[in-house]
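Trying the structure run again after the queue cleared.
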Amino acid sequence: MTATEWITDIALVLVVFRQLREGRLDHRTFLIPLGIVAVVAYSYLDSVPTGGNDLVLIAALAGTGAVLGVAGGVYTRIRALDGHLMIKAGAVSAILWVLGMGARMGFQVWVEHGGGADDVARFSIAHHITSDQAWVTAFVLMAVTEVVTRVATIYLRSRAGARAVAHSASAAPAASVLDRTA
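Done. Tokens:
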């Protein structure tokens, strides 16, 4: 792995660790992880191989990323506090995130330094995966899909929370007016 790949992978892991401490849900919550995967996608997705079972591999890993992303978004706590939405990644969300990111990093280290290249080559031949690019595309799309579905899940859940904050804010002045007339 290159230094850039290590930095990118570690940055994606740190995104969730930053959310282990509750903080205000804002644009950075969405833009930082999406920006990181946009750079990754631009850097590594030259083409999408379609020969043999390449698309099956790519779809399987992208689907895995989607499941991890949605589950991670569901297990992220979003609550209203003083008219703002607060976000905190729970233990399950953090574990799923590290599992997805760590699996990709572990696979790459195993293939490059742990003698896994021969095993991957045999697997690829046996399952009609045509090139190394299929593996690269599959793992990059797994990461992109995990990030995008997690961010989308948090966004959708935050919209429901925003409506609750707006509703409570509009109800609060009415209650205080009633208190003054009593």
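DSSP finds six helices and three strands in the chain. Worth checking whether this holds up in the mutant runs.
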